[in-house]
Amino acid sequence: MNPKNDAHLFKQYQQRLKKEKRIVWIWQLSILIVFISLWEVSSSFYWIDPLLFSSPSSIIELLYTKLGDGSILSHVQITLFETIAGFLIGTLAGVLFATLLWSSQRFSRVMDPYLVIMNAMPKVALGPILIVALGTGYISIIAMGAIISVIITTLVVYSAFNEVDPNYEKVLKSFGATRWQCFKEAIFPATLPAMISTLKVNVGLSWVGVIVGEFLVAKKGLGYLIIYGFQVFDFSLVLSALVLIAIFAAIMYKAVERLERWLIKHSG
Amino acid sequence: MSYLNLEHVSHLYFTKKGYTRALNDISLSIKEGEFVSLLGPSGCGKSTILSIIAGIIKQSTGTIRLQGKPINESSLAIGYMLQQDYLFPWKTIMENVLLGPKIYNKNTEDVKNKAMEMLEEVGLPNVADAYPASLSGGMRQRAALVRTLINDPKIFLLDEPFSALDYQTKLKLEDLVSKLLKMYQKTAVLVTHDIGEAIAMSDRIFVMNANPGTIEKVFEVPLELRNEDPFLVRRHPKYQLLFDKVWEELNKNEKESVQTKGVHKVDES
Ligand SMILES: Nc1ncnc2c1ncn2[C@@H]1O[C@H](COP(=O)(O)OP(=O)(O)OP(=O)(O)O)[C@@H](O)[C@H]1O
Ligand SMILES: [Mg+2]
Fold this sequence. Notes:
The complex is a heterodimer. Chain A is mainly alpha-helical. Chain A has 2 domains: 2-48; 63-266, MetI-like (MetI-like fold), CATH 1.10.3720.10. Chain A is built from 11 helices and no strands. The model of chain A has no long low-confidence stretch (mean pLDDT 90). In chain B, strand 9 (204-209) and strand 10 (214-220) form a beta hairpin. The model of chain B has no long low-confidence stretch (mean pLDDT 86). At the A-B interface, helix 8 and helix 9 of A face strand 6 and helix 3 of B. Bound molecules: adenosine-5'-triphosphate (ATP) and magnesium ion (MG). Magnesium ion (MG) binds next to helix 1 of chain B. Chain B: It comes from Virgibacillus halodenitrificans. Chain B: InterPro entries: AAA+_ATPase, ABC_transporter-like_ATP-bd, ABC_transporter-like_CS, ABC_transporter_ATP-bind, P-loop_NTPase. Chain B: Keywords: ATP-binding, Nucleotide-binding, Transport.
């Protein structure tokens, strides 16, 4: 009798969970629908200026034709390429730089004030200088995407390196391990979770860098479309570009989250 | 002939605020195959001695010789076990055990088979591919023991390796360690707070005093006790006698050292 009863209770519990999940989902969907319909209605009744705020239907129409004739795809491609490149370069360079700091205490002491300044400085302010130095092509935009995340990655990863329990190093040193071996066997793997969590932050940062970079200089890309739409007063175009950015940024974030789960599973 | 020899070893720790004399003029010698214990109040420098012997930190003054050679020139492997097992959580038990051979660049198939055998010997036959998180405290400490033994160290340094375990597991591990070290004829230095453990496992006991760390007194464990299993030693009539003597010595030291203070503050001006 008892186990049957337990199973029954468990089933009830599961059903409650399922129900809760469904309620949350319905709410989420309703908010989206209400928002879009309100927007559509208020725009078609001129409660808001459709010239400025466009409307969901015209955005969808615009996206449909531009995706259909492929003219917006190249913009999406270039922006995605720049963002992913900026993200990878920023993250890798940050980890590498943190490793350098770790490898020499003196170097890290010397660098300390410069890191503080560079971290405090709003990186997008470097935009014009990057453009002067690297030209008006996609290189300086990638550099913007990278530079915005590299310093914070360096600082976070370096402090994670220093927080690793020194006893792991003690074990390795008792085997006669070199400093480099200690890094490879203990410091690096122990900080992998910290590094992975910087990945998630860096995805968002790279989008900021790349879009600002495109605002400044580009002839192509979603950031360029936003500025162009703004200049020719085509706010459907501006908002379409925004929708695309939102979608791809969310996809990238989810992909990094997947990667995070996979890495954590496969690193014990 | 003495195997490991410390002569007038002192050590100071420096921090920004001042310095601590952790060890003051320590001299001791240990014979090959001997098992000695260091007993003393917290902060008397027991861990410091082990770290110096292991070559992890360098003493401020004095010399340490292993088989007549200064310790940093000797290429003999040293085994070091800490209070916690410090198994690397991202490595499997087998990878953990093979860490030493990997560092020494001797990671062969033979070593792997030997590791397998030793894991079986300590009662861990089926965990080679498991991660440390899935093992109990006692199992983990046994795996750490294999990780140390596999390098065939000439000297075994044990820094309170049983103190984080429950009593029953601790007694069993004491027996196991004692059996293995006798079998492989290892020289060992054990740091502990447990007088019973020191008597049960060792041939000689060094009682230390804090502020600064010095060796107060050396106790010889009676021959009858030395060859028993640690578990049985605790029931031996001579055990209680020695226990009382050591206890008295430790208490005496504690009373004396209440007034003194370890850290010397240095004025900036
Ligand atoms: N890295 C360090 N920096 C500064 N002082 C230290 C350091 N390590 C130890 N000390 C000091 O040196 C003294 C001896 O420390 P040690 O760890 O050797 O003691 P211990 O006998 O092992 O103590 P316990 O029984 O608590 O483990 C203590 O006063 C401690 O505060
Ligand atoms: Mg200690």
